[in-house]
Amino acid sequence: MATIRLGDEAPNFTAQSTEGEINFHEWIGDGWAILFSHPADYTPVCTTELGTVARYKSEFDKRNVKVLALSVDGLESHKGWVKDINETQGATVNFPILADEDKKVSYLYDMIHPNASDKLTVRSVYIIGPDKKVKLIIVYPASTGRNFDELLRVIDSLQLTAYHKVATPANWNQGEDCVIVPSVSNEQAAKDFPKGFKEVKPYLRMTPQPNI
Ligand code: BEZ
Q1: Is the CB of 179 under 6 A from ligand 1?
Q2: Does the beta carbon of 142 lie inside 6 Å of ligand 1?
Q3: Which CATH superfamily is domain 14-145 in?
Q4: In the beta sheet, which residues pair with residue 128?
Q5: Which of 11, 12, 111, 143 could form a disulfide with 124 if both were Cys (CB 3.0 to 4.6 A apart)?
Q6: Which of 170, 171, 164, 145 shows the shortest CA–CA distance to 209?
Q7: Is the dihedral of CA 178, 182, 183, 184 positive or negative?
Q8: CA–CA distance, 95 with 75 (Å, rounded to integer)
């Protein structure tokens, strides 16, 4: 297992899921993807996470992001667990869950951190772009459920900054002002940002979000 870093090509794999066999790169297609791991089936925090993702599915769809969950249990176990999730979380699971019983994908994506647990995955999140490159990695411990509003926020930033020469400041949310990246001169900024910009400091220039 090699360390995966931002900008690397996301390792490809073929694996079984609750929606059939998935070849990861083919499945991603031309859009964006999130691959996120769950310590195990029939665990409480994971149950709430998968229910939340199911309820947020339309938000991921709007952003052209496919979601793929992973848990190291088998397909039959996943199917039973999905029934529980649907029953208890006010949601219908509407995305595939990988059945990574042999932990092939978990090891490929460094989701098992032996000093935390040598049997279960941690809560890893990988966001992958249409170019199949890794755009974001976040790792949470099993004890802490993820904030999926934060993941949507990050996707908005990743998709904005992929196409415009801006970065997003602390606590930025969709619709708020952005910073112009340092490599753009003021002269160029005047052309690239027709809504104008404010030079707070030569290195800190704010502009309205360019893609809205
Ligand atoms: C959970 O998903 O609830 C969980 C899994 C492993 C350890 C602690 C919590």
Answers
A1: no
A2: yes
A3: Glutaredoxin (3.40.30.10)
A4: 33, 134
A5: 111
A6: 164
A7: positive
A8: 14
164-207 maps to CATH 3.90.110.10 = no
Indicate which atom in ligand 1 lies nearest the CA of residue 49.
2
What is the residue type of 206?
M
For a mutational test of ligand 1's pocket, the pick from 84, 85, 88, 143, i.e. the residue with the most ligand atoms closer than 8 A to its C-beta, is 143
Please give the Cα distance from 115 to 92 (Å, whole number): 34
Residue nearest to atom 6 of ligand 1 (CA): 142
List residues with catalytic annotation: 46
Sketch the domain layout of the chain as residue ranges. 14-145, 164-207
| Residue 117, ligand 1, Cβ within 6 A | no
- pLDDT in tens for each of the 212 residues of the chain? 679 999 999 999 999 999 999 999 999 999 999 999 999 999 999 999 999 999 999 999 999 999 999 999 999 999 999 999 999 999 999 999 999 999 999 999 999 999 999 889 999 999 999 999 999 999 999 999 999 999 999 999 999 999 999 999 999 999 999 999 999 999 999 999 999 999 999 999 999 999 99
